[in-house]
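Recall the central idea of this unit: under ordinary conditions, the amino acid sequence of a chain determines the structure it adopts. In this exercise we apply that idea directly, starting from the sequence alone.
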Amino acid sequence: MAREATEDDIRRIYRETIDELYAFVSRRCDGDRELAEDLTQEAWLRAVRAWRADGVPDRPLSWLATVAARLLSNQRRRRSMQSLGDDAESIAAAESSDGDAAAERRSLVQRALARLPFRQKRLLEAFHYDRRAVAEIASADGLSERAVEGRLRRARQGLRRQIEADIAADGELP
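Accordingly, the structure predicted from this sequence is:
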């Protein structure tokens, strides 16, 4: 149960938790000190905003660690998407030299996706195409994040089986 937050409460909690929060975040940032500092600061900025509006949670350090972990996850997802974008020229060159094969691979994925159960298809599209976070999907569907992650894993496995079946039926992947 959250309790009302005063400025003194927030300052006290900051002093009590900042070192432990930073240690938690830095262990997960693979030695990137600047990233660890940024994530710790962002988690605290969000805490101050949320706690002023909603009150201090019963376990502030757990709240902060959860926010920081999600921020790091989002940061890593953005980086992976940017690295894909950085390769756009090489991808475009490969597609222009082998455009038919790339189109056939896309078609293979689309056909396999269409044969999945509706909920699995919708989940994969929400996560991979719409770039919705697991937490957002979980909230919208009334599920836990862990349940969404499990369903995503099963949906990916189903998609893989569909693609493998098509490849086995048609021959090799282009």
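The mean pLDDT is 82.
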